[in-house]
Structures
1.
Amino acid sequence: MEILLVRHGQTEWNLLKKVQGKADVELNEQGIKQAEETRNYLKNEKIDLILCSPLKRAMQTAEIIKQGRNIKMIIDERISERDFGEFEGMPNTDFDFNAFWSYKQNLKYDKAENIKDFFERVYDFLESIKNEYTGKRVLIVAHGGISIPVKCYFEGIPNTETLLPLCLGNCEIAKYSYKELNIER
């Protein structure tokens, strides 16, 4: 089974560097263009199924990518963005955003989703689709935060203070294969 992972297109909050976990922010004009470019880039790629976050920015991106193609799309809550809780809507410079993405520190918050709980949610999703869609080529349309544990699932968690550098850019594509998965959990 192969996975193509796409982060949603740009939103106004991305431009403002505001964290938008569960906030249901729509794509801006640039985000729509990015999604259209991604659709054109992927037009000759075999895609059997799209799994998508329920948040508007991901769903808009997925709908644009699948335009003109008859591809089944399934909405899955498990790939909605990490819950930023008390930090939702804040500029990422107003709190320690690097520490927020530190697997080593594993900080606990009043409302925000703990990083290890977040990873467990995404890993459970990846384990379940591995068995459910064997032999398929799946496009996952989700979020920058989701791209971090997905990369770690396939390549291992790096020994760094923050995992932020692993985050995909808007409409960036990553490819993974379960055939090459050698990581022990």
2.
Amino acid sequence: MANLSYYDVLLKPVITEKSMEAMGDKKYTFKVHPEATKVQIREAVEKMFKGTKVLKVNTMNQGGKKKRRGTTVGKTSKVKKAIVTLTEESEEIEFFDGM
């Protein structure tokens, strides 16, 4: 288990059409640290955004893509995403309100 502070867990929000539609159901998508656990993600969201209460956290790991430049072959870094579902009585995350 990684020794991460709560502000190191969430890297950035994922802004796509699918994630914006899910916000109506109080589901928010974030890119998170690859070694973060579901419990750490839950604590980070509740501490960083006051008034939020997390119902559940779903995570997915995406491996790096192969990239080529001429004859050289490389790989991009792997990514971990988390979909955080808030409870009904929880406040919405204000960061996403203007989008």
3.
Amino acid sequence: MKKTRKPEKIAPTPVRLARKRVTFTAKAQPGATVFLAGSFNDWNNSDKEMKDKQGNGVFTAICYLPVGTHEYKFFIDGVWCTDTDNPNVVSTPLNTLNSIIEVK
């Protein structure tokens, strides 16, 4: 009697979430220390430092975010700040506001 071979199980290929390039911009005093924090980095206020490449107080950071809605704030010289150029905000349980961005 001929033995039949069972087909090998193939592990599923992990699905890569589509990520989009997003540039964040914050305005602060030249020489300030500015970080970007949000739902996409567990609100780590020392993880993503923003750079003022021109020395004119315009700080930028580039992130690759998955499609969806993300909350964020800037941490400027130790103070949490919403994005003044983004009118889209959400209220938090702490009675503060977070800026929100929709990545499509």
